[in-house]
Predict the structure.
Amino acid sequence: MSSSSESKRLRPSGGYRNLRSFQVATIVYDATVNFCERFIDKRSRTVDQMVQAARSGRQNIAEGSRASAVSSQTELRLVNVARASLDELLLDYEDFLRQRGHEPWTKEHPRAREVRAVGMSSKAELPDSINRTFPVDAAKYAPWLQHNDPSIVANAIICLIHQTNYLLDRQIAGLERQFIQEGGYTERLAAARVAELRLNQTDEPAVIQGPTCPLCGRAMVVRTAR
């Protein structure tokens, strides 16, 4: 088996740092750690829950990318775990606002539009590249994430979670489409094995077969009567 044919079956993996979903998830994670330190009692279980959910969102994107070379299904499962973790975190921020009487931003709220504008790019409408290769500058979100008003910080992080979830939804749809069209590593490996067996069979000397059966069409075999 040549190394070139093996590399064709192994998909590129581990490039998660170039994924926009990973970049925005990293901002969400860092912002959540900072938010909990500033605005939530350190003795509250909510701190651990929020930090772990934010970390899980980020880490599972990375782990899924690393697993992509040998298991498309594992990658898809881990990215879905990341998506679920961020949904859990989203609920925590919504609870924070509701329980303290803060108003959540609507999609068209001026500040929400400002936060979204930071992440926009002239290339963002490209169909297959919105989730790749456009570095996100975390410092540009500082006016909201470093604000003294916890409701502004929480709402800004909610906007970033929605952005990450949108990117993950695109990523999941792409992975599902790729798996349907190309199969996973295991399937490609099995197909290569079958092809190798067929190739070897053509190199073997031809076996002289008897006449075909007039009933079933298969080769007839000589049997010795007992």
